[in-house]
Amino acid sequence: MDAYDQRGNEIVTYIIERNINYTNVCNVYCKFCAFYRTERDSDHYVLGHEQIDQKIDELVSIGGIQILMQGGHHPKLGIDYYLDLLSHLREKYPQVNVHAFSPPEFNHFAEVFRMPLREVIVRFKEAGLGSIPGGGGEILVDRVRNRIAPLKCNTEQWLKVMEIAHAEGLRSSATMMFGHVEAIADRIEHLERLRELQDRTGGFTAFICWTFQPENVVLKATPVGSAEYLRTQALARIYLDNIENLQSSWVTQGPRIGQIALRFGANDYGSVMMEENVVSSAGTTFRLTREEMERLISDAGYEPRARNNHYQLVN
Q1: pLDDT category, 257, cuts 50, 70, 90?
Q2: Tens digit of pLDDT for each residue in 259-303?
Q3: What CA–CA distance (Å, rounded) separates 314 from 258?
Q4: Which is nearest to 134 in space by CA: 153, 116, 150?
Q5: Around 43, how many Cα atoms within 13 Å sit in the side-chain half-sphere?
Q6: Rounded distance between C-alpha atoms, residue 125 and residue 212, angstroms
Q7: d(CA 35, CA 244)
């Protein structure tokens, strides 16, 4: 958690990555999501290799080393689309880590492909998948999940993906979206489920929490403020002492609160994202350059250092 440079300055890390949403078609219809489309919508899409390559070329040109690739639950994309894409990316961009496909997507894949979950994960890894994001965690309490996303995978299914992935050598992040219909006790149960799995597998590299974004979505709930976010993050830092890294969520809270979060348990400022579509669809559109991010970290009294997905420092 606490790393220092040769001069004794405490380090705060960040990563340069690009968020790529390979499709916005989804049949889960989460009540908190403003991003998804159906195949009947005129603005639905599925990205091909050329479109994704263009995005990665732009990332590589600024020194980026990772893509965060997630999409909707497309009911008609077969396994060949995913395996061909992963193999293509591994061959063309071997220096770029593919951090992709959240647990709900893997449960969806197993159902659509009619394959055992472990086989899907293994085949994706063999094709070039490098790590798994913690998306779709929301609150790992089924009573809550059934209210906000009844068609999405349940708590045990989310955790099972992570357990299998960790056993197969894939590291992952863990997340929590809070401040909607859950109770405080539900947040604690969520943290406990993550802590218990981490005790068994050690596969989570980082934890990220953020608040529900209320604009343009079906779910109606009074959003919580930045003070609640900071308190929750500080609690997570204490509770999840077996997860080494905790990431500030400036994407939803804004750069200044993201900076203050470094005093509330975060040791990582997240990513310099060239592109973000899901949160921005719900009305939050913060952007930072690498220079701005490093300045915010420095102004808070820390040494900014770039990292890779395994939290190893890079030049």
Answers
A1: very high
A2: 999 999 999 999 886 654 544 444 445 578 899 999 999 999 999
A3: 22
A4: 153
A5: 3
A6: 31
A7: 31
Cα–Cα distance, 124 to 177 (Å, whole number)? 26
Residue 288 corresponds to which tokens in the numbers above? Answer: 């930072």
Instruction: Give residue 282's pLDDT.
Output: 40
**Cα–Cα distance between 104 and 94 in angstroms, integer?**
26
- Inter-residue contact 265 to 236 (CB < 8 Å): yes
Per residue in 26-40, pLDDT (tens digit) is 877 666 676 667 777
Distance, in Å, from the CA atom of 239 to the CA atom of 216, rounded to the nearest integer, reads 33
pTM for this model (two decimals)? 0.90
In angstroms, the CA 307 to CA 270 distance is: 10
Gap between the Cα atoms of 138 and 38, Å rounded: 22
Asked if residue 239 lies in contact with residue 266, where contact means CB atoms within 8 angstroms, the answer is no
Do 134 and 173 contact (CB within 8 A), yes or no? Answer: yes
- Mean pLDDT, range 158-167, rounded to an integer: 98
Q: What is the phi/psi pair of residue 186, to 5°?
A: -70, -35
Cα–Cα dist 233/229, whole Å? 6
- Write out the E strands in 155-276: 172-178, 204-211, 245-247, 268-273
